[in-house]
Amino acid sequence: MFLERGFEVDHSTINRWVLAYAPLLEKRLRQFQRPHCGSIRIDETYIKIRGQWRFLYRAIDKHGNPVDFLLTAKRDLSAAKRFFKKMLKRVDSNGGRNGSDLEVMMTNRKRASERSIRVRLYSPGRPRAALRSQQVMFWQLIKQGASSEEAGVQAGASAPVGSRWFREAGGMPPSKFAKESQPFPGRYLCFSEREDIALYRAQGFGVCAIARKVGRSASTISRELRRNAATRSGGFEYRATTAQWHADRAARRPKPTKLAQNDALRQYVEDRLSGQISAPNGSIVVGPDVSWTKRRSVRRQHRRWATAWSPEQIARRLPLDYPDDPMMRISHEAIYQSLFIQGRGALRRELAACLRSGRALRVPRARRKGKGRPFVSDQIMISERPAEAEDRAVPGHWEGDLILGLKSSAIGTLVERKTRFTLLLHLPPMPGHGAGPRKKNGPALTGHGAQAVRDAITKSIQSLPGHLRKSLTWDQGAEMAQHARLKTDTGIQVFFCDPQSPWQRGSNENTNGLLRQYFPKGTDLSVHDEHTLNVVAYTLNNRPRKTLGWKTPAEMLKEVLS
């Protein structure tokens, strides 16, 4: 173009002219810029300049005329702030000169743009003094019992604004409004009372003296000084503003749960609830393959096998496993709430199937109907049992029973009264069971007849040392008809409970309830072999028990043997 006009200029010279004079020309041309009609749109894109990609911020009005632009190497919050500050400054100056004010600005949903606009632009509402008085009135109305919507309307705002104020504050007035919104003492300490406590504390008054002057109980003052004192200086220095901040933070609702905040604690709870069970040699044992059906009750059907510690066992075991970590603490009720109410915690709904009952809902316990008293010959009643067995002071006294399933299947259970150590008896069906019709007064082929139970108990008991074979308490079931022969073979004395008195074998009944998690009612128990029963017994014996001081039965038995 210069050659056509008779000039010969090198392209590098033209480039230097552009770099030197383009800003000056742009500044002069801004004086003649058209009005932006009160509406602009922010556009963002990448362009390539000299082989390098640059990010372009551009503002145009609704007629397509450019308002401002910015080239930057990085696309971040700092660049967005710089562009909006520069653009708004241009708009303000040109708007005042050309008679047009900015009313609408459209942009995308980029986070950097949103944050930069919030930093620069303010809501065109009432002055801050009026807004503060509205919020003070709002919290006063809340204290008088009004709802957030009603308080927002009466304070001069709106129902949605009142709901937002209440939700963002967590249901408690912010510290900056505490003095105005709580002028009178109520159930909780207000800011003015905290100022009096701080003043009396600085003057050297004791807890009881401060309580008399403030008109509160001594326990309230003591708790306030202990909970809400400032500890950053290394001691306990009570200041009203700091105490009010602590109180507001503690009173916010809803609060995030411990399981949602602490990943290590949540993993510990999940492992103890739904962890895989293993044999004594460490090999993993997989039970029935059962999928989660999202039903409230999983009774009378197979359930997935798991370690299945109860929430109370988990809560009480944590201080023993983590004695120096105060963050690894949780109550059993918090675990239950996380399972029952999904909005309260971070535990999966299907973990409720690992509870004892398998239910995700609390229901009242139904009273069972007592069965008739079966006939047992040569019985010895529980009243004749040695006194040392009553207080569980001496090991070696056992309780036993059967748990029954479909097709006349059964599993025998033995529980040591002192250590709660559990032995499971494998009672497979006898040869010929189910081959033909049942014969009256014929041999018991179900596997839990008197002879089969006697042989299974003899096999399990004889593996124990002599001082752990002192007595066995059983109900009046016909499976213990050969108790005299059992005493001859093993040396253990058998005692029988009173009719319809399962509480006389409390440890055994409790253990049977735990076993139902692995062997539910309404299932065939004959499908489980002896190895499987040993694995389940090993799992139960390595659960902490509340009655043992949260030690495991295996640990207690080891102490007894040593």
Condensed summary:
The protein is of the alpha/beta class and about 550 residues long. It has 20 helices and eleven strands.
Commentary on this structure:
Pfam families: DDE_Tnp_IS240, HTH_38. Keywords: DNA recombination, DNA-binding, Transposition. One of its GO terms (cellular component) is cytosol. Required for the transposition of the insertion element. With 562 residues, this protein is α/β, with parallel strands linked by helices. The protein has five domains: 1-30, no CATH class; 33-120; 191-255, no CATH class; 258-354, no CATH class; 382-429 and 444-561, Nucleotidyltransferase, domain 5 (2-Layer Sandwich). It has helices spanning 11-29, 77-98, 111-120, 128-143, 148-154, 159-168, 178-181, 191-202, 207-214, 218-227, 240-251, 258-261, 263-274, 311-321, 332-340, 450-461, 483-490, 506-515, 530-541, 553-561; strands at residues 39-49, 52-61, 66-72, 104-106, 277-278, 284-285, 397-404, 410-416, 422-427, 471-474, 493-496. Helix 2 crosses helix 3 (111-120) and helix 9 (207-214) packs across helix 10. The longest helix has 22 residues, at 77-98. The protein is elongated.
Keywords:
562 residues, alpha/beta, 5 domains, five-stranded mixed sheet, four-stranded mixed sheet, 20 helices, 39% helix, 11% strand, elongated, DNA recombination, Transposase_IS30_CS
